[in-house]
Amino acid sequence: MYVDGYVIPVRKTNRESYLEVARIAAPVFKEHGALKVVETWGDDVPRGKQTDFFMAVQCAEDENVVFSWIVWPDKATRDAGMAKVMQDPRMDMDPASMPFDGKRMIYGGFKTFLSF
Questions:
Q1: Structural domain tally of the chain?
Q2: Gap between the Cα atoms of 29 and 32, Å rounded
Q3: CATH number of the domain encompassing residue 35
Q4: Domain hosting residue 15, numbered range
Q5: How far apart are the C-alpha atoms of 6 and 93, rounded to whole Å?
Q6: Which residue of 4, 43, 80, 114 shows the fewest CB atoms closer than 10 Å?
Q7: 116 belongs to a structural domain
Q8: Statement: the pTM of the whole predicted model exceeds 0.85
């Protein structure tokens, strides 16, 4: 498996708006090869002294962290699928209208080395 993961700050008042965007995007990823798309809203996220999820994306007091991941069968499927996702007209969304600050998103692709 190959996993794309990301953490973003979302204003608490934009939770439903973010969910609407996620409901549009998730099927697109699945149609282009993803096995699973998971979106999570911070619920039991401790504040750290040196690092934490909130600090990682510079969350303001009126924001929460969203931690999400997309599971792919392998990196080749992810690379091909992601290229198709980026060309899919359903993903042609104005960045200015997004319910989160994409400049503070942290993301990456991860090779799975243990899965139960």
A1: 1
A2: 5
A3: 3.30.70.100
A4: 2-111
A5: 18
A6: 114
A7: no
A8: yes
